[in-house]
Design brief:
By secondary structure, the protein is of the alpha+beta class. Helices cover about 30% and strands about 20% of the residues. It is globular.
């Protein structure tokens, strides 16, 4: 925020008659700041506020400016910096901004915290809430918890502003507008007015008097350099290459600078150029083929971009390459169960971002991308991908080639389940024969496939399509949810 914007905000906050559920005034007392940030963030969600505030250096009764020595860099317990301490103990991760300001000869600090989104914010494992101007434990107010879980988010990331009040030359210098026209197959206009009209129509920029705002959507997709955007540079995609099968030694780390759309082809080329190769024997010559199918890499990276939770601060989409696998991670818990990625239409937090990526053919049409990933893994006879769901992130793991003997029981059941899903959404059934073909098992060893199917049934992942049938030889199988 600019100094002018901060001064205006401070005046508005001081003009409030009293502290509120989303506003707290303090001088220097910061010992319970973590609990206050939890309470204010949760209360901001309940009261339909995008942000909540703690203002240090202003007294809480008459709102007089008295000054403060508070700093986000001061030490707390264990000689840890406050900002690091707060980021570690507040869950889920949220954006916290610190804005120092000189007013009336005194130092003021505005602390702005993002509103909770569908999950109560906890400090040191405990969620808090404001009742009037009092801080209380949220667990005692189940109706307020329910409001947080069910309330629609107040703001949409794509419509937010990345940079405000810049002139036309700055817009053209910050936005890679030629990529926009090229990726959509449109002719580049020969005049500035037509370029700006198109960017405004797509909500990549917006007019602000005689100046312009660059939206988050415009910046995250078409930034010439994300480092130019204070709120977005930490969303640059990271690619880390490790030596061996663990994270003990990183060989190389590359952080992307371009927007997701304008830099996508270069990103995928960079990843593919650093993947291990397999040697295939042809009729005459040996030839090298990629260990992992490019379609799978492309789709999973695009998914990580589209489905990330931009409200989680300090995180970015990440691709980690090991000797035996690739891990692709994005912030945010998936909106649907990982077990239903194949059959369920995906739900995206960032619909406009997803819409753009599909229009530019960067990712597949809705609902077909994960199908292709699994199909490609089967075609390459790789282990089935693994989808991992955690509170604050989603991870997909692609594994390098393993023989059936090298796969463990979990690998086999996961592959069997996803094969059954893929067959079902294609209007077909899994059979012993289809599973043998998936694993490359010869017909005489049909019992190996039968054993995998039996284990998958016991694990509750697949079931008979016709439970009344007595024919084992011609049995057909479907996923558990069908």
């Amino acid at each position: 925020m600019t100094e002018l914007e901060l001064r205006k905000l401070l005046s508005e906050l001081r003009a409030m008659p009293n502290e509120t559920e989303w506003l707290e005034f303090k001088t220097n007392n910061w010992q319970d700041i973590g609990e206050y940030l939890s309470a204010l963030s949760n209360s901001a969600c309940i009261h339909d506020k995008t942000y909540a505030y703690i203002v240090f250096g202003v007294e809480d009764e008459k709102h007089r400016i008295v000054g403060t020595t508070f700093s986000q860099y001061q030490k707390v317990k264990g000689n840890e910096e406050m900002l690091s301490w707060l980021c570690r103990l507040l869950e889920p991760k949220i954006n916290i901004d610190f804005y120092p300001l000189q007013v009336e000869g005194e130092r003021v600090m505005i602390v702005r915290v993002q509103s909770a989104i569908n999950t109560p914010i906890k400090f040191s494992g405990v969620p808090y809430v404001r009742i009037g101007s009092y801080k209380k434990k949220l667990d005692k107010y189940p109706e307020m918890q329910r409001l947080i879980w069910t309330k629609e988010p107040m703001s949409v990331f794509e419509k937010g502003v990345a940079i405000r009040n810049v002139n036309g030359d700055d817009v053209l210098g910050l936005i890679d507008y030629p990529s926009y026209f090229e990726l959509l197959g449109l002719p580049l206009p020969d005049n500035r007015s037509a370029i700006f009209d198109r960017l405004k129509k797509e909500i990549l920029i917006s007019a602000s008097d005689e100046l312009y705002n660059i939206t988050n959507l415009g910046a995250i997709l078409f930034a010439r350099n994300l480092n130019d955007y204070e709120t977005l540079f930490r969303k640059s995609i990271r690619v880390i290459i490790y030596q061996g099968k663990n994270k003990l030694k990183a060989i190389k780390e590359q952080v992307g600078q371009k927007g997701y759309a304008s830099g996508f082809k270069g990103l995928i080329d960079y990843i593919n150029d650093r993947l291990p190769m397999n040697e295939e024997l042809g009729k005459v010559f040996r030839k090298e083929i990629k260990m992992y199918p490019e379609i799978a890499i492309r789709e999973l990276v695009a998914n990580a971009i589209i489905h990330q939770d931009f409200s989680v601060s300090g995180t970015c989409p990440m691709v980690e390459i090991f000797d035996d696998r690739i891990e692709i991670t994005n912030s945010g818990k998936p909106l649907i169960s990982t077990l239903r990625f194949v059959d369920h239409n995906p739900q995206s937090r960032n619909e406009k971002l997803a819409y753009f990526m599909r229009r530019m053919n960067i990712c597949e049409e809705r609902g077909s991308g994960i199908d292709k990933v699994i199909s490609e893994c089967e075609y390459y006879q790789l282990p089935a991908p693994r989808f991992i769901e955690e509170d604050n992130y989603t991870k997909v793991i692609l594994y390098a080639h393993k023989t059936l003997r090298q796969m463990d029981k979990e690998d086999k059941i996961r592959a069997c389940y996803l094969h059954a899903c893929l067959r079902y959404v294609s209007g077909d059934y899994m059979t012993n024969q289809s599973l043998r073909e998936r694993f490359g098992i010869v017909e005489k060893n049909y019992s190996m496939a039968s054993r995998i199917i039996s284990d998958s049934i016991k694990d509750g992942m697949v079931k008979y399509s016709d439970p009344e049938s007595n024919s084992k030889k011609h049995a057909k199988y479907i996923p558990y949810w069908a």
